[in-house]
Design brief:
CATH class: Alpha Beta
Radius of gyration: 15 Å
Number of domains: 1
Strand content: 15-25%
Order of helices and strands: EHEHEHHEHEEEEEH
Structural class: alpha/beta
CATH superfamily: Flavodoxin domain
Shape: globular
Number of strands: 9
Amino acid sequence: MKKVGLFYGPLGGSTERVAKKVAAALGNENVDLIPVKDSKATDVEKYENVIFGMSTIGKETWESDKPANDWDGFFPEVEKVDYSNKVIAMFGLGDQITYDLHFVNALGIVAGKILPKGAKIIGQVETESYDFRESLAVIDGKFIGLPVNEDFEPELTDERVNNWVEKIKTDFK
């Protein structure tokens, strides 16, 4: 497996913790952990295997005129990349209890930006073990990436991450 560029944000907190768990499961020597805060399109272009890790913070923040988090600043860079020769996996943090109508929407938002640019997205996850009402991350009946709920289901995170990583390892170049 070629080196994986794992781009995550925001810094600190649950998203960074899960990014480190994903890197450990893949083997830290196989992964470059890269905060999106100061990343550019040229950073993503260096990798054939890419993981995007993000949190969902609510529609009002995603659609705000002022960037409120690290991903808001990274979106223009994401849109500059040609993904036709890349394999992409994504994980997203969200709260399926409080935000059951927007659970891990960020995964769907990012997918909507990179699929038209030729992205091959791997690591889809069945929806059955999650209790939510709506999500932009559900595409063709599955989550487009790994949903993680550190607020209400932290005891499931390690198992979910490890199972997901085993699945994506075989699809990375």
